[in-house]
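RECORD TYPE: inverse folding
INPUT: structure tokens
STRUCTURE:
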């Protein structure tokens, strides 16, 4: 199965030995015989893999920076499998899905029964679950400030205290964090703790976007098509026109976008050749992106789906980025004269959802400039 630039291959068994300039497909064996497979030959990818191999024997935190869709979580999996901790747990946390302070702290560090509303039983946090292994904090820039304080202590001392518990607990984990946001800028704006930023960046790596990886996209296309052929028993390949079209594309969604485009082309092709028409207009320039958002805005206004379904969920799943959601909100505010409460009527939301909407926009910093003050 292909996932964000690294392929998770359930059958591959060969060892991982990245050598600059010679990597095409290399597997990392996982517990239970599963593996992570690296696809690419570009110097930028090879150098990154060499660096990851070197730091794998250390315990200090790793910070992966890069655009959405470049494969940061998969590379975190690769570090884990190179690490001496590879036989111990790998636990992944998607920070944007944890907006509430108590829920966030509980998810990471656990809680005692009755420590907050809804805490009906004791719960072990993911730091304790990952003891001995690796915990991956995806989109760390969106981590709630309360959890940032506790994470800083856990990184510094290995100690944490579950919500409502007087006893201090210890967990020996390696932290790998990732973000597509500029943490140094967020630290300057005081929306991310600067001391936590410096604690996380012992080993800092920039994951290259697909457009900076030369012809790696060709190798990935080949790999994806071979996987689809093995699964669906139909061999298909790109036509010369399709290859020419993809060669000139800038891949704003990186490898995640490439996977979806190639899979769509394979499914919609009429014969053995995948022609440009089979991509169903998925390759977009800036105008195409605007058209997609315009259609989404119209769907909201025409009640073809609710805000939480059409906007919040894709944003948390990273199918919509921050600037796209901000643009949708900005368009909505133009219609309502700058009133956030007016968005409830525009997008067919209940009056009781106002605080939920504003909490979502505030927490993820999605409010564009120019809106009226929030109404009580």
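DESIGNED SEQUENCE:
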């Amino acid at each position: 199965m292909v996932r964000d630039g690294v392929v998770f291959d359930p059958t591959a068994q060969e060892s991982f030995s990245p050598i600059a300039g010679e990597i095409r497909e290399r597997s990392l064996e996982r517990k239970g015989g599963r593996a992570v497979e690296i696809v690419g030959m570009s110097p930028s990818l090879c150098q990154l893999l060499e660096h990851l191999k070197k730091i794998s024997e250390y315990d200090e935190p790793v910070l992966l920076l890069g655009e959405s869709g470049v494969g940061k979580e998969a590379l975190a999996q690769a570090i884990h499998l190179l690490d001496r901790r590879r036989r111990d747990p790998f636990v992944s946390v998607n920070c944007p899905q944890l907006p509430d302070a108590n829920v966030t702290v509980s998810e990471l560090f656990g809680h005692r029964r009755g420590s907050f509303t809804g805490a009906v039983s004791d719960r072990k946090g993911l730091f304790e679950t990952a003891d001995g292994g690796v915990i991956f904090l995806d989109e760390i820039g969106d981590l709630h400030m309360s959890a940032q304080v506790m994470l800083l202590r856990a990184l510094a001392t290995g100690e944490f205290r579950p919500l409502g518990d007087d006893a201090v607990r210890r967990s020996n984990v390696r932290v790998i964090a990732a973000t597509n946001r500029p943490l140094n800028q967020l630290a300057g704006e005081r929306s991310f703790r600067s001391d936590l930023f410096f604690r996380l960046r012992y080993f800092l790596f920039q994951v290259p976007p697909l457009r900076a990886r030369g012809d790696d996209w060709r190798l990935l296309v080949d790999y994806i098509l071979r996987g689809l052929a093995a699964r669906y028993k139909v061999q298909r390949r790109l036509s010369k026109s399709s290859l020419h079209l993809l060669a000139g594309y800038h891949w704003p969604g990186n490898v995640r976008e490439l996977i979806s485009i190639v899979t769509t082309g394979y499914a919609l092709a009429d014969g053995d050749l995948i022609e440009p028409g089979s991509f169903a207009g998925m390759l977009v320039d800036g105008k195409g992106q605007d058209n997609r958002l315009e259609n989404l805005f119209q769907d909201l206004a025409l009640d073809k789906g609710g805000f939480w379904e059409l906007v919040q969920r894709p944003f948390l799943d990273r199918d919509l980025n921050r600037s796209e959601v901000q643009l949708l909100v900005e368009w909505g505010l133009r219609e309502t004269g700058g009133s956030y409460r007016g968005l409830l009527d525009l997008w067919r939301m209940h009056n009781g959802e106002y605080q939920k909407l504003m909490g979502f926009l505030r927490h993820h910093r999605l409010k564009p400039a120019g809106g009226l003050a929030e109404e009580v």
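NOTES: The CA atoms of residues 27 and 37 lie 4 Å apart.
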